[in-house]
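User: Can you fold this complex?
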Amino acid sequence: MSNVQIMTGNTAAAFGAKLCRVQVVSAYPITPQTSLTENLSQAVEGGELKAEFIRVESEHSALTVCISASSVGARVFTSTSSHGLLYMHEQLHWAAGSRLPIVLCCVNRGVGAPWSIFNDQQDAVSQRDTGWIQIYCRDNQEIIDTVIQAYRIAEALYVPVMVCYDGFVLSHTMMPVDVPDAAAVDDFLPPYKPHTILSPEDPRNINPVIFPWRRPDAEGVLRDGYMELRYKLQDTLEEAGKTIVSVGEAFAGIFGRNHGGMLWTYRMEDAEIVLCSMGSLATEATTAADMLRDRGIAAGVAGIRVFRPFPRKEVREVFRRARAIVVFEKDISYGYEGALCSDLKAAFYRSDVAAPIHNVIAGLGGRDVKARELAEATVAALDIIEAGQADEKRQTWLNCHTGN
Amino acid sequence: MIERLFKVNTEEYMLPGNRACQGCGLSLAYRYALKALRENTILTIPASCLTVLHGLYPTTSVAIPCLNCTFASTAASASGIVAGLSALNRSGITVVAVAGDGGTYDIGIQALSGAAERGTDFIFVCYDNEGYMNTGTQRSSATPMGALTTTTPLLTKQQNKKDMLKIMEAHDLPYLATTSPSYPIDLYDKFVKAKRIKGSRYLQISAPCPPGWGYPPKDTVKIGRLAVETGMVVLCEIEDGKFRLTGRSRSLAERGNRLPVSNYVERQGRFRKISEEQLSNLQRWVDNKWNEYLRRAEGS
Ligand SMILES: Cc1ncc(C[n+]2csc(CCOP(=O)(O)OP(=O)(O)O)c2C)c(N)n1
Ligand code: SF4
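Assistant: Here's the predicted assembly.
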């Protein structure tokens, strides 16, 4: 039985958190995430959600509250955007290093200076190396479903999960969303079992200073040094794809929707030209692919859903038949290229995928991007590739007055 | 005094052998503080000398559960523990955050003010060794005027110490107190009292530090006493807004035998470059604070 309601992305995320029966919520206002925080405050004050809501004085404290509450065994939730996420940077590392299954919604927004409240993905992409799983959603249905999946993934792996979705484009846009049944979510997501409990019955010193080398404990057993702990986090993330995919399949088994595990594809069966992107820009690319097909270009789309861990194996498989690849992204690793483009190229190293790749930076700070423009940019990129200039030529900055 | 020592909890929570320096004032105070707090306590501590005292993974010298947190986040970390325990219906545990002066007066003040304003049910303890000692004696806003630190290496600190107690009092807390390891019973009593009270409680420990302050380790108790006897440190408590001098500070007030600040300053290497002008400034600053305390004590 479906329960379809019309709602914004932020409302969908709040529904997700409520269905997961989060026990501690802590957040701080920042556009475009704010209405999500407000929604959950209302749910807690109104008694709809039985949770502690801690109205902290900063994002640094918001994530700290989640870290500590999770350490004593509570299921926790926070959300933020842009400068809020950057202000959490230290705690993002601390959360992953502590191996805590925190779920954070990042409502993607550009980063100052100068100030922009509008959408791009520079905020989350710049936090790529903090040890979190990052999942990018393409519509509001995927947001609610991904929040629910995120807890199951996080609690299976003891790794925090960042659910990313585009500010305004999704956060403030109404779409029909099928709200999962609460009892079914309870079955899908059993209560959180912490790996260590901070408790007077069993005094421990959690996250103390650790040496580079391994040291024996009081019983003489050799325990990890810093590097072993880092390796374990990396190993867990490298293997996390299996869990992410199987959780997606288990979810589909109950709720009938599978958003694609690590990545999703559109008209890829016979595609020669592959458009690749993340989040709502990837959705836009599907319309562009249709337009290109109308013009006789065999275009398809690969949408990267999980950016960390990077779907190395999956992209090698999916891009195998590509003749040319155009990567559209809403972020830039200054001094090089878009981060997704770099990561894709690295994944293709010494694989069967040898197609030329062109990078298009689009939509920074909310710059409008239409499907037609993505289609045209693809055609222009193909010209660059045809001319054999894909390697020399810098990225294209779409709809941007670059003076050349 | 002897008689009152009998009531001190005989259990030890600081096990023998920790990594603090010889004669560490924090170490002395912490032992009594933990005795007063007892088992049903969860600690959270940021980067500081206390992290070192607690020991290196995988062993610890403290038999009370402890969650390490980042430098700026101590009070927020306590908030999270309180929230988590409450969400899980785990009651009867006192949450105690302990930070140095850097982690309290400076980088931790935002989170502390936030947690205090929210009325978080926890005890915040600042052990004030008047500098960033863990990183090698740099200046903090708690460093007194005229002290040499490694970031005021030639000219000494030019400003007076921040009045953190006043800042915390402005949060209308149910209980605030200052303590010194040189007066362990006074310290113990205040921690026992703090544990019984609900809401955000703020305790400050003046913690003499031999390497940071430049005096021999055997003199820690003496230096701590001189700090109180000169009025550099004032032992007091504020309960529901009611101010009270306690212990040695009270008897100094009653007898009027406070010593000049120079008696304290001359015993510490950190003050070896203090100028005449700074010393008289420091004396004036202490006199003004002391008079303010006396007025408040009389008014109560
Ligand atoms: C964000 C951040 N900045 C700097 C440091 C380095 N650091 C670690 S301990 C410390 C000094 C701590 O001083 P205080 O809080 O006074 O405690 P004490 O060492 O004196 O016991 C500093 C600066 C850090 N850990 N984190
Ligand atoms: S530096 Fe000072 S405060 Fe730190 S452990 Fe040594 S004596 Fe104690």
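Chain A touches chain B at residues 23-24, 26, 51-52, 54-58, 60-61, 64-74, 76, 90-91, 94, 198-200, 202-211, 215-218, 223 (CB under 8 Å). The longest helix of chain A spans residues 226-255.
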